[in-house]
Amino acid sequence: MNLHIVDVSIIVVYLIAMVIAGSYMNRRASKDLDAYFLGGKTIPWYYLSLSNAGGMFDVSGTMWLVYIMFVYGMKSVFIPWIWPLFNQIFMMVYLAIWLRRSNVLTGAEWITTRFDQDTTGGKLAHSVIVIFSIVSVIGFLSYGFVGVGKFAKIFLPWDWHPHVYAIIITLLTGIYVVNGGMFGVVVTDVMQYVLMTVASVIIAIIAMNQVTPEMIAAVTPKGWDNILFGWKLDLDWSGILDSVNDRIASDGYQLFTIFIMMALFKGLFVSMAGPVATQSLQRILASRNAKEAAIMNGFAALVVSVPRYLMVGGLTVLALVFFRPQLIAMGADIDFELILPLAIQNFVPVGLMGIMLAGMFSAHMSTTSSFLNLGPAYFVNDIYKKYFRPNASDKTLVRASYIVSAVVTVASILFGLMIESVDSATQWIVSALWAGSAASNVLKWHWWRFNGYGYFYGMLAGLLIALIMPVAFPDINGLYAYPYILLISGLGSVAGALLTKPENEKLLIKFYSSVRPWGFWEPIKNKVKEIDPSFEENKNFGRDMLNVAVGTVWQVAIMAAPLALVIKNWDTLFWMILIIIATTVALKKNWYDKLELN
């Protein structure tokens, strides 16, 4: 495709501005590790929230969302539960508060507050979470690498392989991340979020002007525009786009209610486990206090959903109405991940095209920058400083972070070259990485008897079985394999804990009294009360779970409302707005008004 000089100029100016803005923060970022990786814990929650939203607004994820809306219509708002998307609500309601109270630099360092690092079990627990976190970061970076390469191939004028474009964009992102640290990431993320919001509104307006409800009804099966569902999916694409039925069959979502129940079952445990190595975790730890950490997550769930789903809805209906001949021509090998770039290519005018493309590239760079800043934190703080240079100066540690950022960048490129599609990367992350770690990470919060050995063996068992199962049983859906993965990892966790000694009592007392989790902590709670009779245990389990349920409904309605607006489904839009108002009032009274400062 030959871009107009105006569009090319906008993209070039944007890329230069990102590098300059990130690099400008070098002086503030290079003071010490806390400043480099967490911004010195001085950044206001609303900046962190917009940064978090920008990091979640990625090209690969948007491609996937467009694909699932194309195939499943309004019901697609439930499919991201396989991540699970509602883990953001768990963090908003209580987990962000528990995490921020630890006052640490990384998720791996948090482990040292729970498991005694003077024991073999504690060291094993720390080591396995460092490895898991670094692999997670590289996995997410590789996932984004695939999507941005496909996207760039459509638009940029040179006849290069998608991987070449992805390498160039990833390296450009690495430059400003290495220079600016967390300050640079937040500044550029906020700029990128604003640009993406403008791009999303543009796409939604174009789609609403070009497409009518009657045009959508003519190219979609009955029930496509209905958010409600029964036991079966009941979407029949026969005679419209027959190959979509094959995709639904391969996804395994025909029995939609069973899929939703499985997604909820998996999501409950994964969400209660707490965040893995993502930009959300880093921004929680970077918040000024526990209350702001919670508010930051709630606001991020709101500000990312509205513009992103305006874009998803707009791109989907344009593709449905105008690209059906091209998709039919692809036969059984439809590449749904090309819908997003094709829609932009055909419907966005000169000038707006430059803004749109800069916005989409910014989405990738925002996600990439977050992980490029997060990954080195684990290596430098949790390996290099802890085991090799405990007395290293701040200057030395920051320089080491530069080097590790560069290594992580190269590693993500190499792994990205091996991944076939965005969907395959998505399934690997949600099925293997997250499923295998859930049992250990739930127990660490809620059971006093759980120790470092239990954590290590549970993580090891879960990750091994999660990686072996797709090879041994290639036809099994990762979601339906999850109960087996959870069972095996849970048995490893419990056996590892009960067959070894409990953690150091002083460490458990310190952890419980500062974090104040609910769960099975009775023996430790009694010890804490002996020391401090005024101590009050956490009795908020019921309230927290109610707020999670209300928050999840709130999140789904916020996602569905922009889609209903774009397809002009006014009845659904009315009910979604009504639900948003009711759940917002409920969360204000039962969550926000009861947040503690620390």
TrEMBL record:
It comes from the Bacteria. GO terms for molecular function: L-proline transmembrane transporter activity; proline:sodium symporter activity. GO terms for biological process: proline transport. It is found in: Cell membrane. InterPro entries: Na/Glc_symporter_sf, Na/solute_symporter, Sodium:Solute_Symporter. Keywords: Cell membrane, Ion transport, Membrane, Sodium, Sodium transport, Symport, Transmembrane, Transmembrane helix, Transport. The chain crosses the membrane at residues 6-24, 45-72, 78-99, 124-145, 165-186, 193-211, 253-278, 299-323, 343-363, 396-419, 425-443, 455-473, 479-500, 545-567, 573-592. It holds the Pfam family SSF. Its main location: membrane. It catalyses: L-proline(in) + Na(+)(in) = L-proline(out) + Na(+)(out). Belongs to the sodium:solute symporter (SSF) (TC 2.A.21) family. This is Na+/solute symporter. The lineage of its organism: Bacteria, Pseudomonadati, Ignavibacteriota, Ignavibacteria, Ignavibacteriales.
